[in-house]
Amino acid sequence: MAWTWRFEKADGSETEPAVQPEEFPTQGDAESWIGEVWKELLEGGTDQVTLHEDGSKIYGPMSLHPTDGDEEGETSAI
């Protein structure tokens, strides 16, 4: 099994991520990685991400933008 992220603009079009991803062996590894680099991805032009397992969509798109009123700047889903 390979877990991968699709990086998108707000309109759903695919974009090149500012941080190069890898294929992850587990969903947890993929989610931990996105939790560590989401700010860099957002600053580099990625608005949202979608998680895939072996090419099948698992969930998303998930916005990387902070939610309103969140003082720590965390996203709503991460």
From TrEMBL:
Top-level taxon: Bacteria
Region (Disordered): 1-27, 52-78
Composition-biased stretches (Acidic residues): 69-78
Segments of skewed composition (Basic and acidic residues): 1-12
Name of the protein this chain belongs to: DUF2188 domain-containing protein
Species per Swiss-Prot/TrEMBL record: Streptomyces daqingensis
Lineage: Bacteria, Bacillati, Actinomycetota, Actinomycetes, Kitasatosporales
